[in-house]
Design brief:
It is a single chain. The protein is of the alpha/beta class. It has two domains: 137 residues, Rossmann fold; 105 residues, Dihydrodipicolinate Reductase, domain 2, CATH 3.30.360.10. 31% of the residues lie in helices and 27% in strands. The strands form three sheets. It has a six-stranded parallel beta sheet, sandwiched between helices. Strand 6, helix 4 and strand 7 form a beta-alpha-beta unit. Helix 1 crosses helix 7, helix 3 runs parallel beside helix 4 and helix 5 packs parallel to helix 6. The model has no long low-confidence stretch (mean pLDDT 97). Bound molecules: NADP nicotinamide-adenine-dinucleotide phosphate. The site of NADP nicotinamide-adenine-dinucleotide phosphate has 27 residues, from loops.
Amino acid sequence: MLKVTLAGATGWIGKPLAAAISHAEDLELVAATSRSSAGAPLGELTIVGTTEEALETPSDVFVDYTSATAVKRNVLLAIDAGRHVVVGSSGLSDLDYQEIDAAAQAKSVGVIAVGNFAISAALLQQFAAIAAQHMPSWEIIDYAHDAKPDAPSGTARELAWRLSQVAPPQTKIAVADTQGRPDARGAEVAGSQIHSVRLPGHVIAVEVLFGREDERLSIRYEGGPGAEPYIAGTLLAIRKVSAVRGLQRGLE
Ligand SMILES: NC(=O)c1ccc[n+]([C@@H]2O[C@H](COP(=O)([O-])OP(=O)(O)OC[C@H]3O[C@@H](n4cnc5c(N)ncnc54)[C@H](OP(=O)(O)O)[C@@H]3O)[C@@H](O)[C@H]2O)c1
C-alpha cells in the first residue's frame, strides 16, 4: 500500500482525487489538507489546515492540488520531510523547478510535475515536439476561464519548456525590437511567446501555432468542464514517482 498525503483535498480536482485514492486497492489516503475545512471528516480522516500538520502523519507520496501561491512552499516542505511529490498545481516557473529539482536530488526523492494530467494534453506536448522539429517558428495561446488566478497556465508553461528542449523558435524581429508595444507580443517563457486569454465561457485550452513560409499548422488541446481526465494521470504519477530521483516534468 502506498500512503498518500493530499494537499487541497476539497478542491475541484482534490475532491474527486481523494475519492479515487480511497477507492484504489493499492493506495491509502492518510492525510488531507484544506484551510477552510480543517476539522471536517473525509472518509475516516479528519482534514487538517496546514501542510506541516499533514506531514506529521507518515506517508510515501505528497500530492499538491492547491494554488499557485501555495504550491512551491508545500512541495519544498514535503521534499524536506522525505516524501516523493506529485505536483498538479500550476504557477511554478522554470527557476522554481530548478530549485525543486535540486532539493529533491539532495533528499534522493522523486518529483513528478505535470502541467496537465489529461491524456489529450500529453498528446499535445508530444505532437508539438514532433512539429517543432520541422516547423521552426511557433507561438502559444493559452485560454482559460476568467476566475483562473495565474497565467500562463501550467499546460502552456510545460509546453513552452518541452519545445525549448527541441530548439528555440525562430523569429525575424526580436520581441524587444517590436515597434509600438512589445508586450503585445505576449510573455516569453522558455523562449516561446505565450498569449494568455482569460474570459468567461472558456474552460481550459492551449493552442500552439506553427508557421513557415506559405504554410501553417495549429495543434489545439481543449479540456471540458469535468475533472475526470486529470484523475487517471495523477494516479499513474502517484504510483510511479517513487522510481524517480529528482524532478521529472511531464507524464512520459
Ligand atoms: N495538472 C493538472 O492536470 C491540473 C488540472 C486542473 C487544475 N490544476 C491546477 O491545480 C490547482 C488546483 O486547482 P483546482 O481547480 O482544484 O482549485 P480549487 O478548486 O480552488 O481547489 C484548491 C484546493 O486547495 C486548497 N487551497 C487553495 N489555496 C490554498 C492555499 N493558499 N494553501 C493551502 N491550500 C489551499 C483549497 O481549500 P482551502 O481554500 O479551504 O484551503 C482547495 O481544497 C490549480 O493550480 C490548477 O491550475 C492542474
